[in-house]
Amino acid sequence: MTEAREIERIVLMALDEDAPWGDLTGETLIPESATATADLVAREPGVFSGAAVVEATFGLVDPSIDVQVLAADGDRFEAGDVLARVAGPARGILRAERVALNLVQRMSGVATLTARYVAAVEGTGARIVDTRKTTPGLRSLERQAVRDGGGRNHRRSLSDAIMAKDNHLAVLTSGGADLAGALRAARERMPHTAHLEVEVDRLDQIPPVLAGGADTIMLDNFDLDALREGVALIGDRAIVEASGGVTLDTVAGIAAAGVDVISVGALTHSARALDLGLDVVIEPASAGAAPAEAGPGGPA
């Protein structure tokens, strides 16, 4: 689960963006004494992600709002399922509504798409992992959503591992430097706890990369025949990762080629926000009046 302080940072940023000087609509139209209950309802099936985000969003707007999350991260749900219920001051609930929905819809969309990729490679031994192709500012939440969908995380940032991609290699060898020797020299400078991954886009790059001591070799945009050759050439001397244009239609074949890891940028850069809504019942401040039902949360 994402750390509470990181969730708080992201939620506060989103709340400030959405209501920098307060909620003019709620503060004008809704009596301060009005209370409400609201259900977070699924409009379509999927995989839930963002329980702590729902709690934090309503709690940061108004700590007196009671939040009950009824689904756990990673749970599958069907259309019509109630995923969470909130009750308390109506102004606070309405102010928090859009931010809570934006974040949990995004996270659940990533988790749902990830689960489809994981199911597609079931039984092959290949791991589905994410990439750094995340929404700026939301990387922590999207990485959690990948885990909630059954996937794994690649390096979080440029600070976490050495990953030499095509542009790095082009610069590194532009002066005629020997690739294997350049990688060995890099290993000499690496912290002993660091991991070295090297991307290749041709089979003839694999021997010098192996000689340079790569821990992981990424086969980028290889067709299936080349993937199988690459896997055989590398053997057990390095972890084999496949990447580049992976889709739900191609991922099973890639996994069957024998790779250890498949990195999929689409998990985060192309995931569709899941259709979730907040259904609100407003309780009037005056005693004895019948409750007035409000429709599903709109696009505001």
UniProtKB/TrEMBL annotation:
Transmembrane segments: none annotated. InterPro entries: Aldolase_TIM (IPR013785), NadC (IPR004393), NadC/ModD (IPR027277), Nicotinate_pribotase-like_C (IPR036068), Quinolinate_PRibosylTase_N_sf (IPR037128), Quinolinate_PRibosylTrfase_C (IPR002638), Quinolinate_PRibosylTrfase_N (IPR022412). Residues 23-108 form the Quinolinate phosphoribosyl transferase N-terminal domain. Residues 110-279 form the Quinolinate phosphoribosyl transferase C-terminal domain. Keywords: Glycosyltransferase, Pyridine nucleotide biosynthesis, Transferase. It is an enzyme of class 2 (transferase). It catalyses: nicotinate beta-D-ribonucleotide + CO2 + diphosphate = quinolinate + 5-phospho-alpha-D-ribose 1-diphosphate + 2 H(+). Belongs to the NadC/ModD family. NCBIfam families: nadC. PANTHER family: NICOTINATE-NUCLEOTIDE PYROPHOSPHORYLASE [CARBOXYLATING]. This is nicotinate-nucleotide diphosphorylase (carboxylating). It comes from Agromyces tropicus. The lineage of its organism: Bacteria, Bacillati, Actinomycetota, Actinomycetes, Micrococcales. The gene is nadC.
